[in-house]
Amino acid sequence: MTASPRPETLAMGASRMISLTLNGRPVTAEAEGRTNLADFVRDTLNLTGTHLGCEHGVCGACTILVDGEPARACLSFAGACQGADVVTIEGLDDDPVTTELRSAFNREHALQCGFCTPGMLVSARDLVLRLPEADETRIRLGLAGNLCRCTGYAGIVKAVASVIAARRAQGIGPMTTERRLGPVGARTGGAVSAALPASVAITAGPSSVTTSLADDFTPAHSFEQSFEVPFPPAEVFAFFGHIEEVAACLPGAVIDAMPSPDNVQGGMRVKLGPIATTFRGGARIGRDEAMKSGTIHGAGADGRSRTEGIIRYRVTDGAAPGSARVALDVGYTLKGPLAQFGRPGLVREVAGRLIAEFAANLEARLSGTAPPPVEARGLDPLKLLFSLVSDRLGRLWRRGGPSS
């Protein structure tokens, strides 16, 4: 689609005129800069088929299409979609794939209260167009970001699988259009094969993505952590200069190659029950010997989700004589289906536990006792989550005690 001409921003306080294509027709309307796309289409343009649930990008009820890609309307600023092609559930009335899905949802009893259905249909349509076959595991993964409080998942999965199977039996194959990178609707992304300057190659399964590690990277979320080990700061800082040793202390981390002393390629293995994935990517490493500080700036992808982050660390004297304190400043941005599970509070607590385990492994290595191989264990967020819940319940118990 050819982008509509970008209109001039009106000098009307925090408001501006937004022009985009909505369900095949050009529209222009005024909205405040903070207005999200869901409120814009519902309240300003009177298309209420897009439902709002959690308003935090978790439930998927507000999923619509922006430039052909499923997007969380509650997390997308309307102003970022200037000139974009936006399609809501109303715009899919005559879409053949959505028509087949509606019939399948009725046939497989995949409808109950219907609140999640608009977003569910948009996500399901994307799966029908992309998946080569009716693979139940991949369908469930693809719909993991759309929650149904009526627990109609079995019927929904059967409905989607039946449409995929029927279309493939008719010789209708999946679409092979390129995914594009960049802010949703902003038209600033490039094709996934495009090369960018100052880049680090990221391999995700059979495909390859090239992404830029900009010096002015601004993370969406950040937090601070610290830990102490009973070894001198100089020894601890020297250890951080051996990236292979550092990776061996971090659960799930793997090193594939080091093209240069300040560049590394590798990944982080994540395991959730029977589902396992690996974020593959690269990182740029910086060290300041005088300040005993450094940075690790990396990016990675697992095929659909992408992340970029930067860790700044500094080693100083610890509280006890001869000990070292390691202060960490962590910033990250997560995009894609996994972003819905990466709530900042949970990420911070999970990171705290990983850092605690890293510190224990670091202490073991510095003392000459090798920790258990982390490659065999990997990172198990489910175990961490259970541990987090137990800790929170314990804190509540200690704070208020049992109720009488």
Structure write-up:
With 404 residues, the protein is an alpha+beta fold. 30% of the residues lie in helices and 28% in strands. The protein has helices at 37-44, 96-107, 117-130, 136-142, 153-169, 233-240, 243-249, 344-366, 374-377, 381-400; strands spanning 15-22, 25-32, 63-66, 69-72, 85-87, 199-204, 207-212, 221-229, 253-260, 263-272, 275-288, 293-301, 306-317, 324-335. Strands 8-14-13-12-11-10-9 form a 7-stranded antiparallel beta sheet. α3 (117-130) packs parallel to α5 (153-169). The model is unreliable at 1-13, 177-211 and 374-382 (pLDDT under 50).
In short:
By secondary structure, the chain is of the alpha+beta class. Helices cover 30% and strands 28% of the residues. A hairpin with a 2-residue loop joins strand 6 (199-204) and strand 7 (207-212).
